[in-house]
Amino acid sequence: MVKKAENIIVGISIGDLNGIGSEVILKTFEDTRMLELCTPVIFANAKIVSFLRKELNIDIAIHGIDKIEQFVVGKINVLNVWREGVNLELGKNDDVVGSYAIKSFVAATKALKEGLVDVLVTAPINKYNIQSEEFKFPGHTDYLNKELEGDALMLMVHDDLRVGLLTDHVPVNEVAKHLNEKLISSKIKTIIQTLKQDFEIEKPKVAVLGLNPHSGDNGVIGQEEEKIIKPALKKLFEAGNMVFGPFSADGFFGSAQYEKYDAVIATYHDQGLIPFKTLSFGNGVNYTAGLNKIRTSPDHGTAYEIAGKGLANHESFKEAVYLAIDVFNKRNDYQELIKNPLKAKEKQL
Hints:
The chain is of the alpha/beta class. It is 40% helix and 19% strand. It has a 12-stranded mixed beta sheet with strand order 3-4-2-1-5-12-11-6-7-10-8-9, with helices on both faces. A hairpin with a 2-residue loop joins strand 6 and strand 7 (161-165). Helix 7 (181-199) packs across helix 11. The protein is globular and about 60 Å long.
């Protein structure tokens, strides 16, 4: 029997305790209707979360637990990942606080991997203060890619706008070195499969942006489009995939061309995320596509400058919870359909 939304267990990593993560989490579940959709389990320390609740004047009850099996449906559960106190200075970059963000994240990932939570939603971390001998990853996605099955791909989502990346946290002067036919083919196939199983799009249409200005102008401004991107897209199209491009990135979003496609793939981080965040107005979600488990996060960082002031907008985090639940249900429906070809045929009719 397929699990339904009302009893989905949402694991939540607390993020940087000196940032706005706790605030957006607590504000999200201050709306008690959220507890009708899912059961949250926050991986942190109940005393610290209760302290932050009071500091932020958020009127909700916290249910502390020592084992994940003790969670209670209809309550905001906080699993005690550690017992000791942590000295917090809201708005301050602190390596010790960063280590607790990773304790939370690693514990939540383990629970996700073991099936003790159904989905994972991660609050923002500081990529600089999380580094240690035990944790040498640029961020959440790289660690998840190591721990879970599949090939992780950053997919930014806001309503019908979905933007994926061929390269993510790569310096701009190294992007071209990373592009090759194998990478392009792998990433696009991941996007297509994600659109089918996680977004219920039967025949996805995908647009790919060029690397250079004017998409290279037929080789006048760079050769990557002619030598790498176009040949890769041609092979994918000939294999039956609805893949188009490469398109000139400068006018693609301003002219609303993106509305014709189910996903857009940018060649590097800022090429995709600047227009995405401009269009999503703080309601976007970072979805880690391509893995056997579901993880989402808000599209913003720790925002130290407003931490503890009650000013944080929780809409993106709330949307991340919604998307995780939605994808969980759609992926389950997809698995049911491919197990039962008759149901799949009926759905098409």
